[in-house]
Specification:
189 residues; three-stranded antiparallel sheet
């Protein structure tokens, strides 16, 4: 029975609204589930989504619980990590975003592809754009004798979604998560 986690930093919705009492509700429960909405939810942080993000990693949830829109958690004002236990998809519809996005990826010879054309450090910038923005801005290197226009690497929404979903060990739930599945709420700082 897998445990999922969700961080709630100070000032966030789930910090202010206790999911142990209400369960988890998506921002837009009436939105139609789709691969495109999964990508917008993860890569762009779209709130027009029927999905709720959870993680398999307590460490990832803790990081989200420590830093919230209203500040950094402290011992006097901790953030939270919710623990959710999901037995199967009979109560909730859990979705692996990696599998869903991968289903729609083009063949390797089709253009545009989801691959980037930057250097080896490019993905580090996708993983942590706040700290490693320089990796996203490194110019594409062209073969000798080429005279391409200087530009930054291609970053498709598919690649950004895959990288961020892997970074966060992300599992999505489509629809509501009843409060009966919320097992704990840990204080973190």
């Amino acid at each position: 029975m897998p445990l999922l986690y969700r961080g709630a930093g100070i000032g966030s919705y789930w910090y202010l609204n206790d999911a142990r009492l209400s369960g988890f509700l998506p921002h837009s429960p009436g939105a139609t589930p789709s691969r495109q909405r999964i990508m917008a939810h993860i890569a762009s942080g779209s709130t027009a989504s029927p999905y709720i993000s959870f993680t398999r990693s307590f460490g990832v949830a803790r990081a989200y619980g420590i830093v919230g829109p209203a500040g950094i958690a402290t011992a006097d004002m901790p953030g939270y990590v919710y623990e959710i236990e999901i037995m199967d998809n009979s109560i909730v519809n859990a979705v692996d975003p990696i599998i869903e996005v991968a289903k729609g990826l083009p063949k390797p010879w089709q253009s545009p592809g989801y691959q980037h054309d930057g250097g080896q450090s490019f993905l580090l910038g996708v993983i942590d754009p706040k700290q490693l923005l320089g990796a996203l801005k490194e110019a594409v290197v062209f073969p000798p004798g080429s005279h391409g226009t200087p530009r930054t690497p291609n970053l498709s929404q598919e690649l950004e979604t895959l990288v961020r979903a892997l970074r966060d060990a992300e599992i999505l739930v489509c629809g509501n998560v009843p409060c009966s599945l919320v097992r704990n709420r840990y204080e973190v700082f």
